[in-house]
Amino acid sequence: MRPTLPRRRLEKVAVNMTPMIDVVFQLMIFFMLTFNIIAPEGDFDVRMPLGKSSKEPLDELQLPPIQVRLASGDDGVLSGISMNGEPVADFLDLRQRVARFFDVAIESGASPGDVELEIDCDYELDYINIIDTITAVSGRIEDGQLIEMIKKISFVPLKQTP
Amino acid sequence: MIRKSNGPAITENDMTPMIDVTFQLITFFMFVLNFSEAEQDERIQLPSSQLAKPAEGVVEAPITMQLMANGGVLYAGEIVPVDDIGGSLQRERDIILAADKDPKRATVIVRADGRANSGDVQRVIQICQELGFQQFALRALYKPD
Questions:
Q1: Which ipTM did the prediction report?
Q2: What pTM did the predictor assign?
């Protein structure tokens, strides 16, 4: 016959939750105070060594850079765009013209890195227009796919200071 | 009629739902916590672009130039006129050289307000170029359409 163990009374163990809740609230306060919403930012990578401009003589096989001129009106507002001397309606038009130029250059055997673009803008022009220009010329989205265009972008050296 | 007293009643609050919610909140905050040392300043309103590529990997020796709408450069917590930024950049260059690195490989991140003068941005880039910096990253808010 199996020996019977003495029956123990089941005791309810009360776990003290207070320290854990304290720590949890401390953690929550910490995270809430350090919480800040950071908007996603992106870069346009531009490589610009000193002294590179269209004024320098070009190699025989080198394509002349596309010249984009941005004129400023009052208070830095964009008053006109032109590409290689021809007036351009807006940034969408600029993108289409650059895309045509780029496609012709690629079909002619140039590599994407050979196509350069030079931005010539008035000193007072709002910087947002530079970013809009770079956005228009550096790529286009077709069927949800990004097609990269011009990677070599430079500025015409400053002519005037305020 | 006299009611029979049952003595003081002990009410046990069920803490489980509260602890569940609290842990959910902590998990949320832990996921959204950003440890990156992004130099962002609310005084600068970046222009937005759908093609600005979020930085891939670690940028080597980054130098951030923040241009405000009124023309000053926000550098190391101080507003410096554009033409006086050369001294600060020279110090940055010396630090890079002292660390046995090449300024040509360092990246100057330009965070300029959309209302800043393009000429001021170009001036900052020109000063950087004169000190031997070649790599620039023009920063914009990434807004996919």
A1: 0.75
A2: 0.75
